[in-house]
């Protein structure tokens, strides 16, 4: 399978976009992955709370860079196919 | 030529005078390699001792140095280069710590030979632990169990070349294919490291395995892949499967024994993270199982056609 570096970058961008669109109150609370229920100080964080933390931090940190990178990618794909 | 003479010079700076435009900067506390640079420039430029010659000596020496304008220009250029290098080092140091990276390349021939033997036949090795103190990383030349990055890098490049050769024997070679093979293998490696790192985070396995160590361990499979490709080319598909089985078993065993000491805590610490033992064991197993899968995946399409 001929994966190139551009494919990797595109796949990473799409994955991060997918994480960023998981809205907190519209979707995650309904599934039961809300962040306000897992803020205990237990010793073993557990797998679910780690994932929830990861999603929350990705959404918080990557909001602005994602806008920029998405815009650049869209423009480049429009220009160069 | 500027950079090696600068590094080499820093080791001997205690007993030598330094040239003005090159400030001293911090390297490792112990010299990582012997100074085998070329002997000094016989020109009379400030009477420097050996190890500082190559930059000016290589430029045909005397008639350039005797012209004062060119002299000043060269000095200015070298000071600019040094400043640029310092700025770049400071910036790069925030992402990849260069001083730690140097330790991974401090290898010598006996280490490389023994490590290659160990990668292909790890069943006789008895002592897998690394003797070093925790503060300072150990250069692999002193300790055979330490991971290094020299073998993975060289094995990667050799794998690309052998893959090109394989394609050539099937008359389907073109130079773009080399680049495609290289980027494809690199992408799979990056994906593997990212997946393992995320698995370590999600399972909250707090190990002290560093990213470069993980890169080194995942890069050792290229050695096996070269063996597999050579077996496949020389002995047909029977040889391919035999070599694949052998190298997979060796790599699996090697990684199990090595990672068991790094990731699983031994009985001497009874800390609270003994509850994560099951996850750690699964993680070690998963890393060790991933390697043969990748070895098979990345060499399958290079086989000569089944006849």
UniProtKB/TrEMBL annotation, chain A:
Report the locations given in the UniProt record. Answer: Membrane
Any transmembrane segments, and where? 60-80
Keyword annotations for this protein?
Answer: Membrane, Protein transport, Signal, Transmembrane, Transmembrane helix, Transport
Q: Give an example GO cellular component term for this record.
A: Golgi membrane
UniProt-listed GO biological process terms: endoplasmic reticulum to Golgi vesicle-mediated transport; protein transport
Q: Pfam families, per this entry?
A: Yos1
Alphabetical list of InterPro entries matching this protein: Yos1
Span of the signal peptide = 1-18
Please describe what this protein does: Regulator of endoplasmic reticulum secretion that acts as a key determinant of brain size. Required for secretion of extracellular matrix proteins. Required for correct brain development by depositing sufficient extracellular matrix proteins for tissue integrity and the proliferation of neural progenitors. Acts as a regulator of the unfolded protein response (UPR).
Per the record, the similarity remark reads: Belongs to the YOS1 family.
**This protein's name:** Immediate early response 3-interacting protein 1
| Provenance organism | Branchiostoma belcheri (Amphioxus)
From TrEMBL, chain B:
Q: Name a single GO cellular component.
A: COPII-coated ER to Golgi transport vesicle
Which Pfam families did the record assign?
YIF1 (PF03878)
Q: Which UniProt keywords apply?
A: Endoplasmic reticulum, Golgi apparatus, Membrane, Protein transport, Transmembrane, Transmembrane helix, Transport
Q: Where is this region: Disordered?
A: 1-58
Q: Where located?
A: Endoplasmic reticulum membrane; Golgi apparatus membrane
Q: Where is the composition biased (Polar residues)?
A: 35-45
Q: Which residues cross the membrane?
A: 149-170, 182-202, 214-235, 241-262, 282-303
Q: Which GO terms describe its biological process?
A: endoplasmic reticulum to Golgi vesicle-mediated transport; protein transport
The keyword Membrane is assigned to this record: yes
Q: Where is the composition biased (Basic and acidic residues)?
A: 12-22
Query: How does this protein sit in the membrane?
Result: Multi-pass membrane protein
Tell me where on the tree of life, at the top rank, the source sits: Eukaryota
What role does this protein play? Has a role in transport between endoplasmic reticulum and Golgi.
Q: Which family does it belong to?
A: Belongs to the YIF1 family.
Name of this chain's protein: Protein YIF1
Organism of this sequence: Branchiostoma floridae (Florida lancelet)
Q: Which gene encodes it?
A: LOC118413237
